[in-house]
Amino acid sequence: MSEPEVITRIEGAVGRITLNRPQALHALTTNMCRLMTEALVAWIDDPKVRLVLIDHSGERGFCAGGDIRMLAESGAGDGIQAREFFFTEYRLNALLHDYPKTLVAIMDGVTMGGGVGLSRPCRFRVATERTTFAMPETGIGLFPDVGGGWYLSRMSDHIGLWLALTGARIKAADCELTCIATDYVESAQVPALKAAIVADPDAIETVLTEFEGDAGRPPLAAHIDEISRLFAGDSVEAIVEALKAADTDWAREQLAILGAKSPQTLKVAFRQLELGRAMTRFADNMAMEYRIGARVVRRHDFLEGVRAVIVDKDNAPRWDPPTLEGVTETLIAGIFAPLPSTEEWTPLP
Fold first, then answer.
1. What is the pLDDT of residues 302-321, one digit of tens each?
2. Which regions in the chain score pLDDT beneath 50?
3. Strands 61-63 and 51-56: what pairing?
4. What strand order describes the sheet that includes 102-107?
């Protein structure tokens, strides 16, 4: 019998969710999202469960995102499987955001895309020296979903927008600096930390304090002023112009990074965060992101991005439109437009 993709169980007063697809860096499938949702729903009214702990098996990473190959294969056809995945995953994201019990995520290793959607709603988010955080979707023509429009838009100094547009990868110290992580624990201490949480979940804050380590100096601190100033523009084009005018080594590096990304996705991400920042309900943000996902998964840039980065690995995507100027307001408006009423996303009843 094959191993389950997600292991759920109750240990003491702790509901345990362990991602268990190590060969794929625990990339999420529709079934994994369903299994987690079923467990979380069951535990809401279970008086035995006072805290939920989310982690992963093996040592390679927490969660690398979603099953991108499946999404691309579906997007190349009728897109039904892709839409089913987004619908199910986003219901899980919304459930976590509004969950009534304490959530703890152990972000030990790669935490990207869908892994961010699992960890960011948690009250306690534990990073280790192996943590690498990123929302790298602009590089494959997708967009920073799973609540990115909500969480990234609410980060100070335009750091969330910088992360969304560039797909920058940051380590534990920067995760603490930006409040992506609430705590830092050395990976060697993680098994003992989990045992201590299970032994006394009501003392979670004291336990985390006892295990807290030093993540070191955050490299990002040296660039926060630049990010705050140069990513403050009212359009992607304005940000590009500001970076050109700055003419520093760091600004030139950001320009080169943005120049390799999907122009369509850069504008989608910018609009997504702009709209998400103004929303007052997380569910509204997820409904917006579902509209985007249902459409971009079938567009050229996503299929081409997956080909270039994941399938052929030539890292030379041919974007269409190839420039920011070619991405019209009409194109973006179409991606964000409401779906037919029977096709819109809804949270769990």
1. 999 999 999 999 999 999 99
2. none
3. unpaired
4. 6-11, 14-19, 51-56, 102-107, 124-127, 183-184
Closest by CA position to 50, among listed 17, 19, 18, 12: 12
Strands of 23-130, DSSP E: 51-56, 61-63, 102-107, 110-112, 124-127
pLDDT value at position 225? 97
Catalytic positions, written as ranges: 66, 114, 137, 145
Q: Give 285's Cβ-side CA count (13 Å radius).
A: 28
Cis peptide before 100 (omega within 30 of 0): no
Answer whether 194's CB lies under 8 Å from 53's CB.
Answer: yes
3-state secondary structure 281-326: CHHHHHHHHHHHHHHHCCCHHHHHHHHHHHHCCCCCCCCCCCCCCC
Q: Is 208 left (phi over 0), alpha (psi -120 to 50) or beta?
A: alpha
Helical (H) or strand (E) element with 116? helix 114-119
State the residue for tokens 């830092």.
184
The end-to-end CA distance of the chain, in Å, is 33
**How far apart are the C-alpha atoms of 109 and 128, rounded to whole Å?**
7
**Quick check: 190 and 172 in contact, CB under 8 A?**
no
Candidates 33, 109, 101, 103; CA nearest to 67 is 33
Angle, vertex CA 26, rays to CA 34 and CA 210, nearest 5: 100
Q: What is the pLDDT of residue 60?
A: 81
pLDDT at residue 1, as a whole number:
61
Cα distance between residue 17 and residue 36, in whole Å: 7
Q: How many CB atoms lie within 10 A of CB 232?
A: 13
Rounded to whole angstroms, how far apart are CA atoms 233 and 246? 13
- The rounded distance, in Å, linking the Cα atoms of 265 and 244 is 20
* Alpha-carbon torsion (196, 198, 200, 205), positive or negative: positive
Q: List the beta strands (DSSP E) in 171-291.
A: 183-184
Task: Confirm if 193 and 185 have CB atoms less than 8 A apart.
Answer: yes
**How many other CB atoms are found less than 10 A from the CB of residue 242?**
17
